[in-house]
Amino acid sequence: MEEKQGVKIGMPIIGGLIAAILGGVVWAAVAAMTEYEVGLIAILAGVLCGYAVVLFSNKQIATVHKIIAVVLSLIGILLGKYLTVVYFTAQLYTDMSMMNLVFNGEMISAFVETFTEYFSEPIDLLFVVLAIVSAWQIPGRMAKTSMASEASTSDQTPRA
User: How many C-beta atoms lie closer than 10 Å to residue 28's C-beta?
Assistant: First the structure.
């Protein structure tokens, strides 16, 4: 899993996964504080995953890194939706703590069964698409920026 045709993917996956978890937790925290899901947080999840993949790949970007960023940003969005559902369910049932519900098999099954309802609004799909675009574009742009800065510094070296 570490190398695929000379491209390191192990560390970018780990970094992207950390960013996805952070994005999901931020999503749920904002939803809990505002009692409203803010779709812009989906874009944040895409941006975080894109940056994390770049940082953990040492700016050696290939198409596989963009795919990793996109998949992990979608995982972050799903996690955010799930944690939000868990939070509001815990608010309804005061006898259950949120931590008990997070790993509750019935809760997970209910979320999976009603999955499409959480993405039924066109605005939800718009923010998911924007997160995907962000996660895809950031690694490419950061790689181009780092290559451009390396090229400009190598062009300025004195020649004999």
Answer: 23
Region at 22 (left for phi over 0; alpha for psi -120 to 50; beta for the rest):
alpha
**Model pLDDT for residues 67-89, shown as the tens digit of each residue:** 999 999 999 999 999 999 999 99
d(CA 138, CA 16): 13
The number of angstroms, rounded, from the C-alpha of 76 to the middle of its chain's C-alpha atoms is: 4
Among 58-62, 81-85, 116-120, the range with the most confident prediction by mean pLDDT is 81-85
Q: How far apart are CA 93 and CA 101, in angstroms?
A: 10
Q: Against a cut of 0.90, is the pTM above it?
A: no
What is the Cα 104 distance to its own chain's centre? Answer: 23
**In this structure, are strands 7-8 and 3-4 parallel, antiparallel, or unpaired?**
antiparallel
Whether 47 and 134 have beta carbons less than 8 Å apart is answered as yes
